[in-house]
Design goal:
Number of domains: 2
Structural class: alpha/beta
CATH superfamily of the largest domain: Alanine racemase
CATH class of the largest domain: Alpha Beta
Oligomer: single chain
CATH topology of the largest domain: TIM Barrel
CATH architecture of the largest domain: Alpha-Beta Barrel
Number of helices: 11
Strand content: 15-25%
Amino acid sequence: MSSGTLTIDLEALVANWRALDSRSSAQVETAAVVKADGYGLGAAQVARALARAGARRFFVAIAEEGAAIRQALGPGPEINVFSGHMPGDTEMIHDLQLVPMINSIDQMLRHVEALPGAPFGVQLDTGMNRLGMEPNEWAALQDIAVQQRPTLIMSHMACADAPDHPMNAHQLRMFNEMTAGLNVPRSLAATGGILMGPEYHFELTRPGIGLYGGLPFAEARPVAHLSIPVIQSRWISAGETVGYGNTWTAQQDTRIATIAAGYADGIMRLLGPWLSLYAADGVPCPVRGRISMDLIGVDITHLPEEPAALEVLGMNQGVDDLAGLIDTIGYEILTSLGGRYARRLHGA
C-alpha cells in the first residue's frame, strides 16, 4: 500500500477524557465534543469509544454531524448541536432526537413552533461575539425560555488557552450574571476552561481538543500517529536540486527518499522548510525541497539503510509541534488530515 497509515489510538483518547473528567468534581458531568468528524479522526469510532468510557453527552457543530453520531451510538446519549435550530433542521432534530443550542430569538421561535415540547439548550454570548444571545436579547427572552425547560445553558470562552487573559474573568462574570438564579444546568468550560479550575466548571464541561492530544492540555497522550511509506530513494550529487522550483540545492552528495504524501493529505506546503520526519529509532530526517501535492523529498543520508516508512505524527512529534512550525494550531493540523490515509484503530 502506497498511502500513509493514520493510526488512531482510542486508548489514548479515552485516557485523555478520563484525565480531564478527573479535573472536576464528581458532581460535574464531562461531555465530549466530536464535531468536524471527531477533529478529523473519525467521529463514529471516537464517539463509540467515549460512550464506552462513560460519556453520555456529545456536542457537534451542525445537525448533519449529529445524524452521524446518532447512527453510531443509537438511542440514549444526548447529542447537542452548537449551531442551534437552523431552517431545514426540524426533521432531523425530531427524528434523531438532537438537542439544538438555541442562539437567537428567531431560533427559539422556530423551535417551539415546529417542535413544541422538544428538548433544547440555550447558548449565551458572554463576549466572544460569535454565537449565542447577547445580554439584552437574553434578558428579554429569559423568562419565556426557562418556562420551556431548557436542558442546558452554555457559553463559549474566547481566550481559555491563555489562563491569565483578562477575558476569562470577564466572561465568567458575565456568565454568572446572565444565569443567576436559574435552576438549569450550565456549561462554560471546554478543555482550557477545565484546566483553569472549578469556578469555570459549573454542572457540565465539554472538552474537545484535549481529548485528541492537543494543547492546552499539555499532559494529553497523542492520539494521532501518522507514518508515510517511502516509494523510492536516490543519491544526488552536490549541486543538484530537489523538487519544484529548485528551492533546495545539495551541498554534498545526499540520499533523498521520496515519500507518498503531500499537501493533498494535510501536510501543508508551508511546513517544507522546517519540517522533519522521524525514522523508527527517533532520528529526525529533514524535508528537502517543496512539499508537493502527493510527494515529499526527505534527507536520509545519515540513516544506515532506506526506511520502509517515516513518521510525521507520533511520540517524537505531535500536532502542536507541527502547528508551531507555521504559526497555526493543532486543531488545523488534525482536521486537515486527508482522506487517502489507511486508517487503523488501536484499542478499539
